[in-house]
Design goal:
Number of strands: 3
InterPro entries: Metal_resp_DNA-bind_regulator, Tscrpt_reg_PadR_N, WH-like_DNA-bd_sf, WH_DNA-bd_sf
Helix content: 55-70%
Largest sheet: 3 strands, antiparallel
Shape: elongated
Pfam families: PadR
Radius of gyration: 18 Å
Strand content: 15-25%
Protein name: PadR family transcriptional regulator
Structural class: alpha+beta
Order of helices and strands: HEHHEEH
Organism: Dactylosporangium siamense
CATH topology: Arc Repressor Mutant, subunit A
Number of helices: 4
Strand order of the largest sheet: 1-3-2
Distance between the termini: 31 Å
CATH architecture: Orthogonal Bundle
């Protein structure tokens, strides 16, 4: 899963958000390192909706413009959970390797 997709799904774990709200959350979650453009975001939202990972919660008109709110689906939450576990395993492996490196034992398990 690409980082922007991970961050969009993560942004929707709390409450339904409209596009600008998602953009703000993604920027905040990434500490400002991921700043999505509107075109990129809406393309991703369309793709994630087609995949069943998010759904339109509601639409409302604001200043004559349609604002669409998205929510995370159960399928999306499941996929995000799997990705969290994958990232956790990878981070744990990296941390263990760094600990071994600090002690001078740099051989990775299974590669000796």
């Amino acid at each position: 899963m690409q980082e922007p997709t991970f961050l969009v799904l993560t942004a929707l774990t709390g409450e339904p958000l409209h596009g600008y709200g998602i953009l703000q959350q993604v920027t905040a979650l990434s500490g400002g390192t991921v700043v999505l453009g509107a075109g990129t975001l809406y393309g991703a939202l369309d793709r994630l909706t087609e995949q069943g990972l998010i759904a339109v919660e509601r639409e409302e008109a604001v200043d004559g413009r349609l604002r669409r709110y998205y929510r995370l689906t159960d399928e999306g939450a499941g996929r995000l959970s799997v990705e969290v576990e994958r990232l956790r395993r990878n981070a744990n492996a990296a941390a263990a390797g760094l600990r071994r490196r600090a002690t001078g034992n740099v051989t990775l398990p299974g590669l000796a």
